[in-house]
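Tokens as discussed.
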């Protein structure tokens, strides 16, 4: 447990199942980040208050102070588009993949529909499978940077069906249902003219009514 991260937080509020919001410059969060391999050190010894970097950002911490996350939306030097997981450090009992999944929902609530991406330095992590926790959360490796050979992982937002797309799906389903019915019924309608007795025509009418009722019911259930 990291009491500094828990006690020094200012203005925190619960955003997800595990994550609470913090500020860039939160003293406890910055001290926790100091031990992460991605922490940049200035040659002149400067220690600026803000630690996430420029751009739009959202800093997250767990209530017990054992995990830290930072989302950052900025113009990437290597052309990556979306929202970047700039910091992730987990020293607590909660599975990293669960923390990742929770952080995703917070990002998409803040930046709807955006691609999420992160960098992993395989030379700085102890795992034989760098980025395994992201892969477990459904992320995919999509490349490697030219500089420093960092692995790039991404996750796309879940597909959202729009109103027009939903209408197209319904129409497609109706076509699949109605076409076989027409193939069966058109010859029957042609045969109608050849029927002579009232009983024969009445029987065929009931036959048509049964199929029409089935199509109407399908339309009602699909809307």
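Sequence:
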């Amino acid at each position: 447990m990291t009491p500094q991260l828990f006690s020094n937080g200012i203005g925190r509020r619960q955003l997800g199942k595990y994550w609470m919001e913090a500020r860039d410059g939160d003293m406890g969060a910055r001290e926790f980040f100091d031990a992460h391999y991605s922490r940049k050190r200035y040659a002149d010894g400067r220690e600026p208050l803000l630690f996430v970097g420029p751009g739009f950002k959202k800093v997250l911490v767990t209530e017990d102070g054992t995990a830290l996350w930072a989302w950052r939306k900025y113009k990437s030097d290597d052309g990556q588009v979306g929202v970047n997981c700039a910091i992730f450090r987990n020293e607590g009992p909660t599975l990293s993949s669960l923390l990742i999944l929770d952080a995703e929902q917070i990002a998409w609530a803040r930046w709807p529909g955006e691609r999420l991406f992160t960098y992993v330095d395989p030379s700085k992590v102890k795992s034989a499978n760098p980025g395994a926790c992201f892969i477990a959360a459904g992320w995919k490796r999509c490349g490697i940077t030219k500089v420093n050979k960092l692995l790039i992982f991404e996750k796309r937002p879940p597909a959202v069906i729009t109103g027009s797309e939903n209408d197209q799906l319904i129409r497609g389903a109706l076509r699949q249902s109605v076409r076989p019915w027409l193939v069966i019924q058109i010859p029957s309608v042609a045969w109608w003219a050849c029927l002579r007795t009232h009983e024969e025509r009445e029987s065929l009418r009931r036959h048509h009514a049964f199929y029409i009722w089935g199509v109407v019911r399908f339309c009602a259930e699909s809307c």
